[in-house]
């Protein structure tokens, strides 16, 4: 891939002020794309993050606040962006509880943010992509979009749904220069995951290396976290000429989790 092959393209990445989303936004900017960062907050740090990203990679970068739990705001994000050649639906939340104890409001929020927002952003972005004659929809699903675990009913339902939505988008755009794919990460070392390690060490009475290998990565055969940079690199690859015929599928970045 040419180093700056996305110059002239605009990438909108939802939920992108940290973790996987920021990793993807940085990879897109490094490849030359202008970038729109997003989260549900609106403070000085959000806008400075975008400004710093733009300066680092020599691209236009800005921050647009939008609450992905609200359909009108999800649609307005793309409208305000003005252009959307690459749409990365990454925003997501999690809650863990048995089904009979799962708070209905948590179910509704997870489905809204992890799944429904992707429908709304895509609905606005596709006409822009068609006018431009090129587009890439990249949905950040999960290993849990392909398999299940107990106590994560809403998250798993949403991620399975996101994989299905991805396939439908791909079929509706199959004869155009637009692709839609889902990246399915396993455990990724993000600030959110990093913050959980000390508690897990205390709970299990283990050192860091042991708790990571034997508890947190028990289902990830590589016993290694994926990184935001690796997810970003996968997303950029899906925008390359080599990936023009990759559409309607999932790409697992999970250290072998879904091979089990």
TrEMBL record:
Signal peptide: none annotated. The lineage of its organism: Bacteria, Pseudomonadati, Pseudomonadota, Alphaproteobacteria, Rhodobacterales. Belongs to the short-chain dehydrogenases/reductases (SDR) family. This is 3-hydroxybutyrate dehydrogenase. GO terms for molecular function: 3-hydroxybutyrate dehydrogenase activity. It comes from the Bacteria. Pfam families: adh_short_C2 (PF13561). It comes from Meinhardsimonia xiamenensis. InterPro entries: 3-OHbutyrate_DH, NAD(P)-bd_dom_sf, SDR, SDR_fam.
